[in-house]
From TrEMBL:
Gene3D superfamilies: 1.10.287.130, Histidine kinase-like ATPase, C-terminal domain (3.30.565.10), PAS domain (3.30.450.20). GO terms for molecular function: phosphorelay sensor kinase activity. This is histidine kinase. Residues 283-496 form the Histidine kinase domain. Residues 139-209 form the PAS domain. NCBIfam families: sensory_box (TIGR00229). The lineage of its organism: Bacteria, Pseudomonadati, Bacteroidota, Flavobacteriia, Flavobacteriales. It catalyses: ATP + protein L-histidine = ADP + protein N-phospho-L-histidine. It is an enzyme of class 2 (transferase). Its EC number is 2.7.13.3. Keywords: Kinase, Phosphoprotein, Transferase. CDD domains: HisKA (cd00082). The keyword Hydrolase does not apply. The keyword Nucleus does not apply.
């Protein structure tokens, strides 16, 4: 290099400086005029290529309040170098102030007389390293918070030495005071039936590099479930070391066991219920539908013969038989659909007027026997199950007819009213009534207030009515009447109105 002419040496030196992979700049005078800046430094300035000859303080005014200029002037005046490590420097790049991190030096340049006439600025940008370090710190902080909030214990296992180290919470799982102990000490706490599982988990580490197992441990005669999760460390200074976390999962295991028992119990109950339902559907479809089919066949033949003979009265009776059989078939089909679907459709449009009229036809003979009058105003359309509402009103009207007073014409009145919150349906009769002490018992399954000799029935009617109302998010109650008879109130949410 010394053998080269001075002009060539200067060019080589400039090329070296200009292509250097780190920023290099030279500033002179109090105004810190830029007399040299390599490509890396020009890129760092972020002010474009035409910066040579301008003042450092003018192209980077954002440094004024960051003590950079004070550091430069101190080097110019004292001749002492200045060094900074991982220093944050905010620079405007493309119109935006952005944080950067640098290791930088300000080195004085001396003249022939020993005076300081300039400062050389060298730097190495470490922004990415600092961002990564901050992210690592943040991740570690979040991890600590997660571990604490999750009540996790942290452990390390030195496989070669057979030693184990753990956090305070980890050692508390076993009632240990020391933070470091042997693997054999840990094994002494493991349930005898789970020791093989622990050894197997350690042996599979060579294949999977992961440790995962759930073990029962016994601490002070108390059984606990501990979940171990870990992996081989990738750190060079922790070769053959397992790092991981442990969690007390006793409560989860107990809850899971209770849930499993409950599921098994409910499954058994559901299986029994389904078996009963299938049997019920089978009986209806085979034992009842066949005679109904025959009834329809012979009533049609009877009706045709009577129409030809012009006997209108007998033809009318045959028509009633035909209509009743058709209604019975419709009811059986509805029950079969209900049993096959498992639950009724609660979003059907229900016409209560139509249902009540059908019930009056079904109970026509009983109504005639009791000289009954069934009075009802125009009822609203509802969203619900047709078959369930039919069952509800059928049971209530049939009950009123059954429990009518001797030597009195039966009178049944159905009323309704509604507002923005609820729909109120009231069924009133003038029958024998129900005493107040029995007003709650009547809704119990198979509860009978009278003997079978007095009144026929199963004791299911009102219990089913209450279930049907509750199925539609309502409630049903018995109300003490002002005089004789019985009064039932059904309260349903206003949202049921169609």
């Amino acid at each position: 290099m010394m053998d080269l002419p001075e002009s060539i040496r200067e060019k080589v030196l400039r090329d070296v400086i200009d292509t250097a992979p780190f920023p290099i700049g030279v500033y002179t005078g109090d105004k810190m005029k830029i007399v040299l800046a390599n490509q890396s430094m020009i890129k760092t300035y972020g002010k474009g290529p035409d910066v040579i000859g301008t003042n450092y303080t003018e192209i980077l005014p954002e440094l004024e309040n960051q003590q950079i200029f004070d550091q430069l002037r101190e080097v110019l005046h004292t001749g002492k170098s200045y060094e900074a490590k991982n220093a944050r420097v905010d620079i405007v790049v493309n119109g935006k102030l952005k944080p950067h991190y640098f290791n930088y030096n300000f080195t004085p340049i001396f003249g022939a007389e020993g005076e300081v006439y300039g400062v050389m600025n060298t730097a190495a940008e470490v922004t990415e390293l600092n961002v990564a370090r901050q992210q690592t710190i943040e991740i570690e902080k979040k991890l600590r918070l997660a571990v604490e909030s999750s009540q996790l214990g942290i452990f390390e296992i030195d496989i070669k030495k057979g030693l184990m180290r753990g956090s305070k919470r980890f050692t508390n799982f076993f009632g240990l005071e020391k933070r470091e102990f042997t693997l054999n000490t840990l094994v002494s706490f493991i349930h005898p039936e789970d020791i093989a599982l622990w050894h197997n988990a350690l042996e599979t580490l060579s294949e999977t590099a992961d440790l995962n197992c759930e073990l029962r441990v016994i601490n002070n005669k108390k059984l606990q479930w501990i979940r171990f999760s870990g992996s081989l460390s990738e750190s060079d200074d922790k070769e053959n070391t397992i790092v991981g976390i442990a969690q007390d999962i006793t409560v989860q295991k107990e809850n899971a066991q209770e849930l499993m028992q409950l599921v098994e119990q409910r499954t058994l109950e559901l299986r029994r219920s389904n078996d009963d339902l299938k049997q019920f559907g089978h009986v209806i479809s085979h034992d009842l539908k066949e005679p109904v089919r025959k009834l329809l066949l012979f009533s049609n033949i009877l009706k045709e013969d009577l129409d030809n003979d012009k006997k209108p009265r007998m033809s009318q009776y045959a028509h009633k038989i035909n209509k009743s059989a058709a209604r019975l078939t419709e009811m059986i089909d509805s029950i079969l659909n209900y049993s096959s679907a498992g639950s009724p459709d609660l979003n059907e449009v229900v016409d209560l007027n139509h249902i009540i009229e059908n019930i009056k036809e079904d109970l026509e003979i009983k109504i005639l026997e009791k000289h009954a009058v069934i009075e009802h105003k125009k009822m609203p359309l509802l969203n619900g199950s047709k078959i369930l509402f039919h069952q509800l009103f059928y049971n209530l009207i049939a009950n009123s007819l059954k429990f009518s007073r001797d030597n009195f014409d039966s009178h049944i009145k159905i009323e309704c009213s509604f507002d923005s919150e609820k729909l109120l349906i009231t069924i009133t009769d003038n029958g024998i009534g129900i005493s107040i002490e029995n007003s709650l018992r009547i809704f119990n399954v198979f509860e009978r207030l009278h003997s079978k000799d007095e009144y026929e029935g199963t004791g299911l009617g009102l219990a089913l009515c209450k279930k049907i109302v509750e199925r539609h998010n309502g409630k049903m109650m018995y109300v003490k009447p002002e005089t004789t008879g019985a009064v039932f109130e059904i309260i349903l949410p206003a949202s049921i109105l169609h």
